[in-house]
Each structure stands twice: as structure tokens, then as C-alpha cells.
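Subgroup meeting minutes
Present: P.N., E.W., G.H.
Scribe: E.W.

1. P.N. recapped why we're keeping a running log of single-chain structure predictions: easier to compare across weeks, and new members can see raw inputs and outputs side by side.
2. G.H. added today's entry (140 aa).
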Amino acid sequence: MADLTITASQVLPVSDSTVQAQGTAGATITAGQALYLDSSTNTLKLAQADGTAAEAAIVGVALVGASSSQPVVYATGGDVTIGAGAAPANGTVYIVSATAGGICPTADVTTSGYRRSLVGTGIGSNKIRLHIVNTGGVIP
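Output recorded in log:
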């Protein structure tokens, strides 16, 4: 899979981002990674398409890094700059990848058993517009 190569130091909310979601990290998190809420511990962990339905259910994209038990702020909607290295393609739809915390183009997740959770759409200028949707659908 070709995950976006996100530069953590370049991850920034854009003025229209829905940013003010915060929680406690349940793992080491890097800015720009996809997160899910572990309901058993009420902590944020790295989302992944090849895990359980809960692990694939993205709640947002981390705006800061955090170690386990530290606070983490994440975007739940709007536009987020994710860096020049990632350079999300304008019009490309991105989903949670099989790599924990990763974000990849929807076309890259074709393996049987993977779950599709929508992250957003590339809008150019190193930005992604978040449209978080958890379908829970498994690729047959």
C-alpha cells in the first residue's frame, strides 16, 4: 500500500477545521496519523483497516504527537495541511490503511477482509479535506 508520507512537523489545521476534539493517547501517536477510540480504555489509538471494526472506525486525524497517557488533539472535519511529503492528490479519496495510523488512497485497499473507513479527499496545496465516515464494510 502507498500510504501518504506525512511530515509530522507540517501537520496543521486550516482555519475551517473542526479541531477542538481532545482525548488521551492509548499508544504513541504522531501528528497526521488516523485515530480510533478504544471504548474499553477510553483512549485514542492508531486506526487500521486490517483490524477489528472498532480499530477501523476512525474518529479523526492527530494534530499533535503524544505518548501513551498524554493528551492528544485531533481534527474531526474540515481541512488539514498534512505536509509536502504527503502531497495528497487533488480529488483523490483517502481511507484508513492497513498500516496502524496510516492514510492511503482508496484504490490501494483491495485485500479481502480489510475494512473501509473514509478519511477525506485531497484538495491540493498539501491538504486533505476530512470527511470521516465509518462504513464498517469489509472488502469481500
